[in-house]
Design brief:
By secondary structure, the protein is α/β, with parallel strands linked by helices. The chain is built from 4 helices and 4 strands. This is F420-non-reducing hydrogenase vhu iron-sulfur subunit D.
């Protein structure tokens, strides 16, 4: 079985720093992750409409700033609610709400980024391929 495709919507301020540090530190994680840098995770719902699970990703995660550290003040809190809502919708559609998750991290949390990738890869393997995948 091929590695599942994981889309990671990562905040430019925090999540991207963690992903970059993981790469420069040569930390190991599956190469099937597709990082997508966004200005703020608060814009997540817009990006999910055009990418991610509707386009066939097996799992999606959002890597945003830690609570009270968002450069845009409330972006990470608003996306947390959107992720919860999206989980519920995916469950109702029979796709599986566990295909999406929110992780909070700082730019120095390279280990947390690799843990998020590994966790979502394991989840996607357990859930099987995205039923919307063409």
């Amino acid at each position: 079985m091929a590695e599942p495709i994981i889309m990671a919507f990562i905040c430019y301020q925090c999540g991207y720093g963690a992903a970059d540090l993981a790469g420069t530190s040569r930390m190991q994680y599956p190469a099937s992750v597709r990082p997508i840098r966004v200005p703020c995770t608060g814009k997540f719902l817009y990006y999910l409409r055009i990418k991610g699970i509707p386009k066939g990703a097996d799992a999606v995660f959002v890597a945003g700033c830690k609570p009270n550290e968002c450069a845009f003040e409330t972006g990470n809190f608003s996306v947390e609610e959107r992720v919860k809502m999206t989980k519920q919708i995916l469950d109702e559609m029979g796709i599986g709400g566990d295909r999406i998750e929110m992780f909070f991290m700082s730019g120095a949390d390279a280990g947390k980024f690799t843990e998020a990738v590994n966790e979502m890869t394991d989840r996607a393997k357990k859930l099987g391929p995205n039923p919307l995948k063409k």
